[in-house]
Input
Amino acid sequence: MSVNISVNINDMNILIIDDERSVRNSLGEILKDEGYSVDTAQDGKEGLELVSKSHYDVIFCDIKMPGMDGVEVLDAMVGMGLDSAIVMISGHGDIDTAVGCIKKGAFDFIPKPLDLNRTLITIKNASERTSLVSQTKALKKKVYGAQMIGSTPAITQLKEMIAKVAPTDARVLICGPNGSGKELVARSIWAGSNRSAMPYIEVNCAAIPSELIESELFGHEKGSFTSAVKQHKGKFEQADGGTLFLDEIGDMSLPAQAKVLRVLQEKKLSRVGSDKDINVDVRVVAATNKNLKEEIAKGNFREDLYHRLSVILLNVPSLDERKEDIPALMDYFQKQIHHECGMNILPMDDQARDLLVAKSWPGNIRELRNVVERLMILSSGRITADDVRAYVL
Output
């Protein structure tokens, strides 16, 4: 059977748990023909045994089965902390059953007899979700590996604020100069939150042309503009259940600001080219290097949006405000560069270190890391004051 739906297979593994042999065999053969790797189980017990031994991207599970029913299987798999998208199927389903399964952690609910188009679309959506979960895990690992280095009063106070704010759902506005580490603060908030198992999506508002920002944030429907060749989910939808980081929000256009305000107020959005409302549950963390109160006075930023975003206001100090942290940061960056690039860690003369501490750092943390890498590349055996004078000052 041929279906005109393009699905990214990417070696996806699928498990079908159903006590009806005909359903297992027919669905299994169709999915194999589509290029998927498929296993089947005749009951919940066998399904859980397979799940304990192998990873599955998508699991189809019948609700009405003798012995352990599908809801019990769903509870068990959710309790195992699986990354799999669990799709419940039933010939006796109703809306209450579907809602109950979704609340328990199911990815979707499909009634029998199974519609092939609907099934393949569900698998495609599950593939996108699996990709987001994988990216989230990798980012989370990166976040936990990236410590907020420093012990000056300014950075200590910031760490304490993050620890208090992270577990809440409060919106946070992070202010600070370019290169000061606002992105790390945002990731730390997400990693310490109750949403840390859900997606973390970043958007650099300054890097997206104003005519594309609404499509990027809210998505678009196929044909809504010239280059809209297919439906696109925006960043708010991608971050549903998780955290959306709006970096450089001070550069966002006023029309886009109005739509962001609506999402924050009503927790719903509509894609470009559509009047249909889509509910979203997103924690928004924003950052800016601009003085938004001045931008409000100039008419460049909405005051109501500012107040929506700044439930908690965090100020990230510049590197010049925390010079005592520079030696510890240099040591950390040497170890990080050694780990990432295999370059040798070099001893540093006291005079060289003093020169770097005394230097002004307009580029902040980002500039310091670049300087450390430059010195590791160009210095011979150890970093001296002459190296600092030649390659930095």
Q: What stands out?
A: The two ends are 69 Å apart (CA to CA). The chain has 16 helices and twelve strands.
